[in-house]
Amino acid sequence: MKHSSGFTLIEVIIIITIMAIAAAMFVSSMGKSFTQSPASTGLVNKQYQLIQQMEIITSKYRQALPIADLCSFKTTYVDGQPFVDAANTSCTYTLTSGTFTTKSALLVTLTDGNQKLQSIFTN
C-alpha cells in the first residue's frame, strides 16, 4: 500500500474558504477603527496651520539672531502674526548679578480654537 502524506485539493480549498470567511468577518468588524480617525480633518488642519505658523516665526527668529533684544523681535514680527495669543505671549529679562549680563526669553503662544502651541526663544 502506498501511504501519501499531505492534503488533498478539496481539503486545501475548504481551509482557504474558511480562512477567507473569517478574514472577511474580522475586516468588517475592525474596518471602522482603521478608516475613521478620532481626530477630525478640521482639527488636524488647525494643528497643521499652527505648526506652519510657528515654523515661520522660528525661521524669522533664526534670521534675526544677531539682534540681541528678543522683545523688539516680538513687537516687530511676532505681534503681527495670525494665531498669536497676545495675552500668553511674553518677553522677559533675566539680569545676573556680578557681571552685568542681560538675557531675554520670548514665550510665543499660538492658539486656534482649543488648539495651543507654545515655544520659547532665547538669545
Query: Nearest-angstrom radius of gyration?
Result: 30 Å
- Our estimate of the beta-strand percent is 15-25%
- Report the helical percentage: 40-55%
Helix- and strand-based class?
alpha+beta
Strand order of the largest sheet: 1-2-3
Please tell me the overall pLDDT.
79
Termini separation comes to: 90 Å
Low-confidence stretches: none
Number of strands: 3
Main sheet specs? 3 strands, antiparallel
SSE order, as H and E?
A: HHHEEE
Shape: elongated
Query: How many helices in DSSP terms?
Result: 3
Please tell me about this protein's structure.
The chain has 123 residues and is α+β, with helices and mostly antiparallel strands. It has a domain at 41-122. Helices cover 46% and strands 22% of the residues. It has three helices and three strands, in the order αααβββ. The chain has helices spanning 9-35, 41-63, 70-76; strands spanning 90-96, 101-112, 115-122. It has a three-stranded antiparallel beta sheet with strand order 1-2-3, covered by helices on one side. Strand 1 (90-96) and strand 2 (101-112) form a beta hairpin. The termini are far apart. The relative contact order is 0.12. The model has no long low-confidence stretch (mean pLDDT 79).
